[in-house]
What we know:
The strands form 3 sheets. Strands 7-6-8-9-10-13-14 form a 7-stranded mixed beta sheet, sandwiched between helices. Strands 2-1-3-4-5 form a 5-stranded parallel beta sheet. Strands 11-12 form a two-stranded antiparallel ribbon. It folds into 2 domains: 40-150 and 283-343, Rossmann fold; 153-279, Response regulator (Rossmann fold, 3-Layer(aba) Sandwich). It is built from 12 helices and 14 strands. It starts with a helix and ends with a strand. It is an alpha/beta fold.
Amino acid sequence: MRNLIISVLLIGIFLIVGCVQQPAAETTEESVEVVEAEVIKVGFMGPLSGDAASYGESIKRGVDLAMKEMGLDNVELVVEDSKCEGKEAVTAINKLISLDGVVAIVGEVCSGATLAAAPIANENNVPMVSPSSTSPKVSEQGEYTFRTVPSDALQGDFGANLAYDRGYRKLAVLYTNEEYGLGFNNVLTESFAALGGEVVASETFERGAVDIRTQLTKTKDAEPDVIYIISNSPDSTVAALQQMTELGIEAAIFGSEGQKSPAILEGAGESAEGMVVTAVSSGTSGFIERHQAEYGEAPGPFAAQGYDAFKAIGLAVEQGATTGEEIKNALFGSDFDGASGHIVFDENGDVSGNYDVFEVQNGEFVLTS
């Protein structure tokens, strides 16, 4: 009888322990689910192939460096190649939002692609932070559209004043037939004319075009003393510079920030000598040093702005934002020293910015002011 009682008691103890342990197992499963739910997906969309791939790769390096330095273990980067094309950008953003479930996006790179994708971002309450889209129209795309690069409304005026202050009075413009080129050209020519200069030619070409002789022949006939190239296609810029040399065009050559690319120096060679480029910040000395240490070379175009675009989103996540709306609200409150300078977004999601002036000397971009 005594043994029977002991056996019954032991069975009871085991049952009680089993009942107590069962909720613990359920809690463990719930904890795993919570951890998984905290993973936040951020998209990157830009050209990783095609004629603008060098810009996308440069920006992606800045994004990767920011992600590494911030150490956000709960953030996953999802990458899409948009080729800087509007149609591809629409496909990319739809995939990022609908299939991948991103809550914010670094991109797009080209203005036309950003303008194509922006309505979708706004409809789905997913903030986009472009590191390089400079068209003035980006300012009008809604409360979920931001950028860490200044508008061409600022750079076009800066470029016009720079050319005029250097004594040039007859301006010709060679620009790409897309939102970036159109917006920059409008501001540049209006500002130059307002200063008292004369716009003697304004010729356009398709991005990626490598035969621009017809436009350049018309430009030469107009006898400008300065030609401003606005392009985000290194192939087109290289072709334009080489064909200017072939045609014997002797005007001074200015270029927008897209011309500050090693690919242009390598491709154009002597034809690029003397070109003056107005460019957004290449990055603080600290950023340049860290980029050099990480990748073995100086930052490329818009790498600093790519770093800042991700950092702005990352800081929002650090503050507890997990949804697109929460990140958007946090972005409007951004105030930090970034790789490209101090970042504060205005009511249009824009940043202000100063410009550096470079001149190609002996095959290198040399900062002149």
